[in-house]
Design brief:
- By secondary structure, this protein is an alpha/beta fold.
- The protein has a single domain, classed as Aldolase class I (TIM Barrel), CATH 3.20.20.
- The protein has eleven helices and 14 strands.
- The strands form two sheets. The chain has an eight-stranded parallel β-barrel, surrounded by six helices. Strands 13-14 form a two-stranded antiparallel sheet.
- Helix 8 (185-192) links the parallel strand 10 (168-173) and strand 11.
């Protein structure tokens, strides 16, 4: 039986684990390998790892770090950052990653979705849309850690990536990132209307109740969070955490 997925999202910069607010001011919070080991013990549903340096600096994926993470992980892994070619994607899959997350590369070359899906299967190709509210209303896709405007309507683009063979979309709300005041439910509603693909939402989780609200409304969905699973308390002390099985069951009940 399919269940909602609750997914920690880890941001990597300079080989370290960081956390941002509105995609800005990354704060070092620890060693990513240590975080993976702790999440193993907590039996998480899935783990998403994003290298926020690679695309901005024009770097290739850090294969050495990816391999170390994959070797330590006992959970399904999604990796994103710096992937621009089929060859890079295949190398990453060969290291033990189950899903590749594509963002700016598919804005520049949407056909990359189809090319990778043909080699490894659509279920392994994830498109991440970093989305920001427009001043005069509506939403827009941004790339390069929220710094580069694309002029793209995210809802139209979701339909396009589905047609091109993507297996899943991740909706990442820039305005909610690290704020921990709840998800942008309007954004999620509009995105969900555009696709039948599996969808994961990211940006805004400040409590398990925030996650429950999304699950109650959309049922089979991925709900990802960064700050919620690396910070604890009002002073945001660094503490890797994740709901126990009993807590998760409560989230799934209406």
């Amino acid at each position: 039986m399919l269940r909602p997925r609750i997914i920690p999202s880890l941001l990597i910069q300079d080989n370290g684990l960081v956390k941002t607010v509105n995609f800005k001011n990354p704060k070092y919070v620890g060693d990513p390998i240590n975080a993976v080991k702790i999440f193993n013990e907590k039996a998480v549903d899935e783990l998403a790892v994003f290298d926020i340096d690679a695309t901005v600096k024009g770097l290739d994926p850090n294969y050495s770090l990816i391999e170390r993470i994959a070797n330590q992980s006992r959970m399904p892994l999604c990796y994103g950052g710096g992937v621009k070619t089929v060859k890079q994607a295949q190398k990453i899959f060969g290291l033990g990653i189950e899903k590749i997350a594509l963002s700016s590369a598919v804005i520049e070359n949407p056909r990359l979705i189809m090319d990778i899906a043909e080699r490894v299967g659509a279920q392994s190709v994830i498109v991440v849309l970093d989305i920001k509210k427009k001043l005069l209303g509506g939403y827009e896709v941004f790339t390069h850690n929220g710094k580069k405007s694309t002029g793209i309507n995210p809802f139209k683009f979701i339909s396009e990536v589905q047609d091109l063979g993507a297996g899943e979309v991740i909706i990442n709300a820039i305005d909610q990132d690290g704020v921990m005041k709840g998800f942008d439910m309007t954004l999620i509603e509009k995105a969900r209307e555009q696709t039948s693909l599996p969808m994961t939402v990211l940006g805004g989780a400040g409590s398990l109740e925030d996650i429950k609200k999304v699950i109650d409304r959309h049922h089979i969905i991925g709900v990802a969070a960064g700050s919620l699973f690396v910070f604890k308390g009002v002073y945001k002390a660094v503490l890797i955490n994740y709901p126990a099985q009993e807590e998760k069951e409560k989230l799934f009940k209406k």
